[in-house]
Fold this protein.
Amino acid sequence: MMRMDGCSSAGIPDFAKAKAWSCIAMKSSSRTFRDKYTGDNNPGRYCQMISMVNISDGKMMPCPGGSLIKNSEGKILGAVGVSGASADEDEYAGLRGVADCGFNL
């Protein structure tokens, strides 16, 4: 875990970890997790997403900023979670970091 100077030590690291945990649990990005359950304005699907977050004791966070890390064969190696800026900026930072390290998304 890395934290930028001046970044809050409360909340932000937990948010980033929850985004990464969501990726592993759902085998997709945290944006995809959110969109899967909110994209069609179906209240039942939204309730399902909230239930998954609750059942995981809050380990999941359905918003952009979590990305899977894969090898060249497409096998999931892990995930990265970023928090502290806007959700889109968090996601970009994570994607860029994964790509810059030579891994696939």
About this structure: Helices lie at 12-26, 30-38, 43-55, 87-100. The longest helix spans residues 12-26.
